[in-house]
Amino acid sequence: MSRNYQYEVMEEIKKRWSPRAFDPNKPLVDEDIYPLIEAANLAPSAFNSQPRRFIVAADPEKRQKVFDALFEGNQLWTKLVPAFIVILVKAEDDEGRKSRWTEFDTGTSFGLLSLEAVRRGLHTHAMAGFSPDKIKQNFELADGLEPIAVVAVGYYGDKRDLPEKYQAMEQPNSRLALSDIIVE
Ligand SMILES: Cc1cc2nc3c(=O)[nH]c(=O)nc-3n(C[C@H](O)[C@H](O)[C@H](O)COP(=O)(O)O)c2cc1C
User: Fold this and answer.
1) What is the pLDDT of residues 69-111, one digit of tens each?
2) What is the reported pTM?
3) Whose CA is nearest to atom 15 of ligand 1?
4) How far is the CA of 17 from the centre of ligand 1 (A)?
5) Residue 62: in which H helix or E strand, if any?
6) Does residue 131 carry a pLDDT above 90?
7) pLDDT-based confidence at 175, cuts 50/70/90?
8) Which of 125, 148, 150, 171 to mutate for ligand 1's pocket (most ligand atoms within 8 Å of CB)?
9) Which of 41, 66, 139, 145 is the most buried (most CB within 10 A)?
10) 8 A C-beta contact, residue 110 and residue 40
């Protein structure tokens, strides 16, 4: 399946999709991942509150702590993923003020992170299928930090290494037409 575009957009936006086949032979180090966090950190946020936080899990011990928190459906395809980024939301600022837009702001930062990854030849795949409580336990997170997504990061691998049911899904999926999402 290929995606159709009515208008021309940035190459990175066109190339981004969420694969499941990652290359286990190309491990990532912090220096590969920190530029992605840099991109995330440059995202806008309401009142510049910057409510997003990140755990970089590229070494085997941290990677395992994230893997153990994933739901089974995601563990099935993430065995070979070299690194994870856990995205956390800081629900209140240092003065205890809540914002309605913390999750909006945090999602925006993932958008930029995923595009910087593409620019560097990497892929990302966000996941909601994990236990936030297990992440909190495994990383002894401070109160007020809520895990909102886990992101698989790495270079593209070989889809034949995936369980069969995922091999068929290993292609960019479709989108609604602009006429379906622009509300008149
Ligand atoms: C917040 C969020 C949660 C997601 N959770 C999962 C998940 O638990 N497992 C999974 O395989 N994909 C997950 N996805 C990936 C989506 O299914 C995928 O982004 C969507 O189908 C669009 O495909 P694309 O990213 O290839 O364009 C998630 C994506 C987002 C943004």
Assistant:
1) 999 999 999 999 999 999 999 999 888 888 999 999 999 999 9
2) 0.97
3) 126
4) 9
5) helix 60-67
6) yes
7) very high
8) 125
9) 66
10) yes
